[in-house]
Amino acid sequence: MKDNHLISVALDTPFSIGSVPIRNRIVLAPMSGVTDLPFRRLAFRYGAGLVVTEMVASRELVFNAAESWSRLKGAGLTPHMVQLAGREAKWLAEAAIIAEANGADIIDINMGCPAKKVIGGYAGSALMREPDHALSLIEATVKAVKIPVTVKMRLGWDEASMNAPDIAARAEAAGVQLVTVHGRTRMQFYEGRANWDAISAVRDAIRIPLIANGDVETVEDAREILRRSGADAVMVGRGCQGRPWHAGVLVGHAGPDASEIPGLVVEHYKMMLEHYGNEVGVRHARKHLGWYLDRYARDLASEAKAAIMTSKDAVFVAAALERALSASGDAGARQEAA
Prior knowledge:
alpha/beta, TIM Barrel, 2 domains, 9-stranded parallel beta sheet, two-stranded antiparallel sheet, 16 helices, 46% helix, DUS_fam, nucleotide-binding, tRNA dihydrouridine synthase activity
């Protein structure tokens, strides 16, 4: 059945989440601290079918926390999919109402984040240990809004409790219109390989669209995860770090050529400064600059890299970045953009 499914699904074909059309089958994963608005804008520009906000803390959004409102912004990206996290139905429902009123087209409930900070508050993947409570959150969110609600989860808390199929089926019955599954348990964090075959049990349990996630780096990976999971679309996360255009490349769109990368990286840097302000933007940008330099300027001297990574002078950083990326002779690394 999964092989027949693959024959009818091409990565560049559209699908729908409820009544919301999605232009292709490669989705940029929500990654806290990574997929902020500047990153999502670049990913969507280069062809990602759908981009998802960083995890927005529901209670903090209701109480007007500046960070949550910053993460909520969509800046005209359509469709605008907002991921909410939380433990209490009241706050998730109210946050979903706020998100819908501020342009969200789809609400995603985070039941997959393995971070200790998140599960310590009994949210994210910790909810998979309490399916009844998780369903109460889903039901409250679905009832609160008119737009589609989706859920992102893992296979289970650990290998002894691989309950994703059961939770997905109950979520569908509660009105959820798409499920995304990362092919690891919470206890695996990001260790080992994602189990693409195990996702197929969720496919067998639901009729709504399924997105498969975990360790997708190449077009071949994307096709294989579809074949082995029976999913309708693919979510790509860490493979896009240091190359926000990569989701579109997997669909078949052209990424930047080697000569365009220095200017594009500087553009991304300036977008972050504009989004956060210079002082905060310089700090937030550092992880991205490290990924870019590791991919496309591997021959850069450690002292020069350290100067770029630690400087608070945005003008210096932008100029040094462009010089380093333009001067790099690491053609092999640059080919990763294509």
